[in-house]
Specification:
By secondary structure, the chain is an alpha/beta fold.
Length: about 270
Amino acid sequence: MKNKKAMLAVSFGTSFPQTRALTIDAIDEDLRNAFPGRAFYNAWTSGMIRKKLRERDGIVIPSPAEALEQMAADGVKDVLVQASVMLMGEEFVKLRGIVSIFKDRFERIALGAPLLAGEADVKRFGDIVRSAYPERTEGEMLALMGHGSPVTDLKAYKALQRYLDEKEHGDVILGTVEFEPGIEPVLEAVRSRRPRRVYLAPLLIVAGDHANNDMAGDEPDSWKNRIADAAAAEGFETEVCCILKGLGEIPQVRQMFVDHAKEAKEL
């Protein structure tokens, strides 16, 4: 067991089996393949989702702390942690705190950065976004629904919006389902641009509850219906086309996580 190395892949989790296979499992597999010399462990941060899977499906997935405890018990000495999160928000801050608590339990523990950790990441990801969705013609726009976070200053979202404005001439608009800026930037763009068609997609690693319900659901307050209603209130009709594809389905996004794991910094 001496000098045993291991990788811990951390995700928020999802209760949607199909999107899990296409996103979380795909990210895990890419990370496993990128580090063949490391034993592989995984963990989910959402206690609610872990509980739901345990009770509904009999699937037991550890929390990050539980996984790290198991790694220590297994004699792991060198730990590499990579989380599939978007930015330096609430989930990443919590995970970094947990990992820091365990750093004295191992000879070395390193943590990879989130997807949008700096300017180079923003540009790389922005170029991926430009090619990952249907090519837009005149009168069409793309709206992306991010999650948002109470502990981020939104620099990454703002930088991404600026880059997309520069490259896409304002026809790609970002909003968030929770916290600022919310859906309002999308509604403002619909009112001002009066598009005949809006492609609506999640700026989320998985196309789970937020994507299926808050974004594409049939309830009056879903983004799909609020966009259509905003257009109708201005006297025009907009077709809203929902794209239920999580970012984890995009190979170039998964490669960004692999690259961040390779550049992980020791705590």
